[in-house]
Amino acid sequence: MYFDKIYRTNRNLFTLVLVFAFNSIVFANEENLGSYAKVVLTEKSRALLAFKNPVEIESKKIYQTNIDGLKFYAKEISPSRNRVYGLFNKKILQRGESILLIGVFDKKKDDNIGKLRGSVFYSVSFGSFKETIGNASAESSQNSPFTLGASLNYKMNNLFSISSSAYFSKLNSAMTENLGAGDDGNSVDIPWEYGLTSYLEYSGLN
Questions:
Q1: Rounded to 5 degrees, what are φ and ψ at 19?
Q2: Is 42 helix (H, G, I), strand (E, B) or coil?
Q3: Do the beta carbons of residue 163 and residue 199 sit within 8 Å?
Q4: What is the pLDDT of residue 137?
Q5: 3-state DSSP call for residue 23?
Q6: What is the DSSP letter of 139?
Q7: Integer angstrom CA distances of residue 77 from 45, 50, 203
Q8: What's the mean per-residue pLDDT of the chain?
Q9: Start-end of H helices in 75-132
Q10: Helix, strand, coil proportions of the chain in percent (round to 5)?
Q11: pLDDT digits (tens, 9 = 90+) for 6-37
Q12: pTM for this structure?
């Protein structure tokens, strides 16, 4: 009797392990097909679905579900991409129920989010201008032996990032008037140029 109880207990535990393993395999296979969403609002065939994570989904597209014959037309997607409003081809689901949308997967996380990136830059420029009015002419040149700057970028999320940059530049300028008369050129002393910019970037929806 004692061994019979042990045998029955072990057999029940073995059955539970098999059931758990089978359910895990089925659930894993379903996740490979798509992502689960919860129905948070529903009215007739219209529904608002909530996903746990941001998802890769296209608007104006029909998606199959894990329920035979049930399809979902994605109409509008929230900026956070975890809420989708659309239409089912028939009324089946109730508020609070979950549904698997086949072909809809979690959006890949951007590794740059939350990271500060920086860069430096260097440039050299030269410009020459000539203007003639009647017998008089003027030629000027402006060159920069160097422009040095740096920039920073911080990506807050998939939509917004902050960028800032600063630079300073050395400018040299010379002007020659009445070239036909043989006038000598005159140098113009230009102060150092510097600048600072900062702006908010919006990436939009993919």
A1: -65, -45
A2: strand
A3: yes
A4: 74
A5: helix
A6: E
A7: 17, 10, 16
A8: 77
A9: none
A10: 15, 55, 30
A11: 444 455 544 544 444 444 444 444 557 788 99
A12: 0.43
